[in-house]
Amino acid sequence: MKIGFAGLGLIGGSIAMAIRKKYPEAYIAAYNRSSKPLVKAFRDGVIDYATSEIDDGFADSDYIFLCAPVRTNVTFLSKLKPYLSGHTILTDVGSTKQNIHEAVERYAPKAHFIGGHPMAGRERSSYFNASAELISGCYYYLTPSKNVTEEEEDRLKSFISELGCHPITVDPKKHDLIVGAISHIPHMAAYMLVKLVMDEDTPEEYMRVTAAGGFKDTTRIASSDPSMWSEICLANKDNLTKLMDRYIHDLKDIRSLIERSDEKALYDMFGEIRDYRNSMFTQTEDSTV
Ligand code: NAD
């Protein structure tokens, strides 16, 4: 089995490590802008071939994973096109799917492309924070393009399952709405919570210094890479702005209940939300996208 990675950071590195663990004989080629992850991955035996340019090391791959930030993945398509063969499944791990599907149609329309998005991750980027366990047990969205046969979709599904993930197939539009609500909006909320403290802190900085578990849990993802998140926001602009309008509306609702001292309504609302929240994460509290 031959597999290529364009971008070998947190997610690409973690998938490559999981593949190496499950398929010790697989041939893994990787391209990355900076050489440090490539050197480390080669030394650790995670990859067999490292390159600072997309080249024929990617030819005849069974799978090629695009694992850079969402806009950068688009720029790889024309460079990879000459190396895609009939049996190559091209996939990506980007947090948005409509943009990459549109780009594939434009720059590599014949590619057998299946969008992908592992619902796993963390706020610290880079290969140096990657691990095979990061993706273990996660849900993994797949968004097949119209060029893909059922056999190809099944092939990628079973490959992803063998790595310990749970594949879910949806269309790209639905994917972007779902992750808009469960991943992108939480990042906006976390950034703005930290901003609130940054702007409203006392002269002694008591807020910054004494903030404890609740604040830390709620805002962990505000430590995520700013450039990655600016790209995600713009790539999912329509969903994000609609969901933000809804979220702002709900914040205004709760503000008005507090202003009116409507304790009963607050109690009922908190109770209903708590019950729903308690029905989530029934298997684990570790999902960290
Ligand atoms: P990362 O920064 O750890 O890795 C990105 C890698 O791409 C880095 O090694 C970087 O050097 C390389 N890169 C960037 N620009 C490049 C270029 N022009 N040419 C070659 N290499 C380049 O980021 P990550 O967290 O692994 O995210 C990668 C993708 O995974 C993103 O599309 C993101 O939306 C998606 N994703 C991230 C998470 C998460 O929690 N971090 C979760 C799921 C999906």
How do the strands and helices of this protein lay out in sequence?
Blueprint: E1 2-6, H1 10-22, E2 27-31, H2 36-43, E3 49-51, E4 63-66, H3 70-80, E5 89-92, H4 98-107, E6 112-118, E7 139-144, H5 150-162, E8 166-169, H6 172-200, H7 206-210, H8 213-219, H9 226-235, H10 237-259, H11 263-278
Parallel strand pairs: 1-2, 1-4, 2-3, 4-5, 5-6, 7-8
Antiparallel strand pairs: 6-7
Helix pairs in contact: 3-4, 6-10
The chain binds nicotinamide-adenine-dinucleotide.
Nicotinamide-adenine-dinucleotide binds at residues 7-12, 32-34, 37, 67-70, 72, 93-95, 117-118, 121-122, 125-127, 225, 228, 232, 289.
Description:
The structure is a single chain. The protein is 50% helix and 13% strand. The chain is an alpha/beta fold and 289 residues long. The longest helix is centred in the middle third of the chain and has 29 residues, at 172-200. The two termini are 29 Å apart. 36% of the residues are buried. The mean pLDDT is 96. The protein binds nicotinamide-adenine-dinucleotide. Nicotinamide-adenine-dinucleotide is lined by residues 7-12, 32-34, 37, 67-70, 72, 93-95, 117-118, 121-122, 125-127, 225, 228, 232, 289. Residues 7-12, 32-34, 37, 67-70, 72, 93-95, 117-118, 121-122, 125-127, 225, 228, 232, 289 line the site of nicotinamide-adenine-dinucleotide.
